[in-house]
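input
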Amino acid sequence: MKPSFLLLAGIILTTSTLNAQQSDEQLRQKADKIAHKYILTDGHVDLPYRLKIKNFRLEREYLGIPISTKDGDFDYERAKKGGLSVPFMSIYIPSSYQETGGAKQLADSLITMVKGIAKAHPDKFAVVTTPQQADANFKKGIISFPMGMENGAPLLQLSDVAYFRQKGISYVTLTHAKDNHICDSSYDTTYTHKGLSAYGKDVIKEMNRVGIMVDVSHISDDSFYQAVELSTVPVIASHSSCRHFTPTFKRNMSDDMIKVMAKKGGVIQINFGSSFLDENYRNQVQVLQEKFGKMLKEKGLKYGAPAAEEFLKQYQKENPVLFADVETVADHIDHVVKLTGNTQHVGIGSDYDGVGDSLPTGLKDVSQYPNLIYVLLKRGYSEDDIANIMYRNVWRVWKQTIANAKI
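output
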């Protein structure tokens, strides 16, 4: 679909002119309308693990979570306000489980939790495994829960790939913070496999066979290039941003990676964490963390101890950092559009409930997506452009992955 503006040439077309003629209030109303008119999918919401560490028990519904709560970044009421209709629930497996064992059991328990939430509130939520199911739920006003496994650690043998597809998994992030048996991580410096392992190559082939999207967030650059080359369908980055703005942060994607992924039809879904968006924020945090560490040592305190936690709260209050903002998120979207020449290879992957209090101003929880749409309208994006970003791009990859499956 043709974009409404050409960033490379700096040409402002009709849509931008029309948007400029509208008042600020009219644009905000239009943004809210668009947020609810189209499906809005978010590639990565860490609600399940947040509930797990809160000792969530479905029978108690944990004080109303996830219907209405002030805790965390997601609940039903805020999601409806923001227009969020298809959040991918992250089945997050910490890298520590690669050493201790129990990764598969944790994945099963989190999947059971997500299904249990939907079963307890069938008028509000439903688990889905295809975009067509999500389309049908959207028409009914029901929020869909597709699931993505963050870290392939539970894929202990090749048959586990089909097992988790049958359990409802629609994408797998190949690894997380450490190299695993599938591939190397962007956070690790061990370079265990120099990319994909032999088993990892088989896993990608099996993911293609059973219809699970390949998620390249978190993986090393070598792993990325090998995965994109090997996969017979486009890949996604479910929650990554542009390394152009954070040159020291290898977890984000370089310009070349974005162009290579787009050439094969893939999609990068922009992460909202300030450390993913802004190098200045990263520098601020690093300086403050180093200073805090020295102060803890002087006081004889250890990280995680109750006294250290209280000291941390006071320290953060006295040393505020300047967060990224909604405009910065739009900058990342603009950059992908500029690199790829259209709006077909970028989406939203907020990492809500996964990046703590580092969320940007204007996008602090799932009620605030219209703020981003408003900024995109101001910058000249058409309604079609925005619908691409909201869901159509991810739908294309998801549908192609399922259509390509051999089972």
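quick obs: The radius of gyration is 21 Å.
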